[in-house]
C-alpha cells in the first residue's frame, strides 16, 4: 500500500479528489480510521473528483447517501446488527455501478463483496493524517 501524509483537511480533500480518478464504476472502497480521522473529509474529496456538485454530508442517521447513483456514501457506525443492515438493503447498492465509500464497514463485514479496496486514515496529531491506499 502507498502512503501519504496530509497536514490540513483541505489537503486530504485534494488527495481524495485525485484518488477518485483511479476508481472505476462499481468499486467498493472501505474507509478505515477512528472517529474524527477524516473519512468524511476524504469522501467529500472523492465526490469532487467524480464531478458531483452536491455537498457530501455525513450519512450517520441515513446510513447511506445516494449521489445520483454515481456515489453511495455509507456510515455504518450506528448499525447494530448484520440483520438490520440486510433489512435496510444496504448490500443492494454494491453492484449498481456506482462507487461505494463505506465508513465503519466492520459493522457490516459479512455483507461486503470480496474484492473491496481499502483506504486507512490514521491520526498522527490534531492536524496530521497518514493515508494508506
Ligand atoms: N489532515 C487532515 N485531514 C482530514 N481531516 C482533518 C485533518 N486535520 C484536521 N482534520 C479535522 O478532522 C476532522 C475529520 O472529521 P471527519 O468527519 O472527516 O471524520 P470521520 O473519520 O468521518 O469521523 P466519524 O467516524 O465520526 O464519521 C474534521 O474536523 C477535520 O477538519
Ligand atoms: Mg464520518
Can you give a write-up of this model?
- The protein has 133 residues and is of the alpha/beta class.
- It has a single domain, classed as Rossmann fold, CATH 3.40.50.300.
- Helix content is 22%, strand content 26%.
- The protein contains 3 helices and 7 strands; from the N terminus they run E-H-E-H-E-E-H-E-E-E.
- Strands 1-7-6-2-5-4-3 form a 7-stranded mixed beta sheet, with helices on one face.
- Helix 1 packs across helix 2 (39-49).
- The longest helix has 12 residues, at 9-20.
- The protein starts with a strand and ends with a strand.
- The structure holds adenosine-5'-triphosphate and magnesium ion (MG).
- Residues 39-40, 58, 75, 103 line the site of magnesium ion.
Structural class: alpha/beta
User: What small molecules does the structure contain?
Assistant: adenosine-5'-triphosphate, magnesium ion
What is the global morphology? globular
CATH level-3 fold name: Rossmann fold
Q: Can you write the helix and strand succession as a string?
A: EHEHEEHEEE
Number of helices: 3
Give the CATH superfamily: P-loop containing nucleotide triphosphate hydrolases
- Indicate the radius of gyration in whole angstroms: 14 Å
**CATH class category:** Alpha Beta
Task: Give the fraction of residues assigned to helices.
Answer: 10-25%
Amino acid at each position: 500500500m502507498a502512503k501519504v501524509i496530509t497536514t490540513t483537511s483541505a489537503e486530504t480533500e485534494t488527495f481524495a479528489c485525485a484518488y477518485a480518478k483511479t476508481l472505476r464504476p462499481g468499486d467498493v472502497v472501505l474507509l478505515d480510521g477512528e472517529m474524527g480521522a477524516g473519512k468524511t473529509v476524504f469522501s467529500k474529496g472523492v465526490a469532487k473528483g467524480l464531478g458531483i456538485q452536491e455537498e457530501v454530508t455525513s450519512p450517520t442517521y441515513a446510513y447511506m447517501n445516494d449521489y445520483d447513483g454515481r456515489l453511495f456514501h455509507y456510515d455504518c457506525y450506528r448499525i447494530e446488527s448484520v440483520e438490520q443492515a440486510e433489512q435496510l438493503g444496504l448490500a443492494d447498492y454494491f453492484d449498481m455501478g456506482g462507487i461505494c465509500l463505506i465508513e465503519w464497514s466492520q459493522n457490516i463485514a459479512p455483507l461486503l463483496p470480496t474484492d473491496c479496496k481499502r483506504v486507512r486514515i490514521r491520526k498522527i496529531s490534531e492536524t496530521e493524517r497518514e493515508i494508506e491506499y
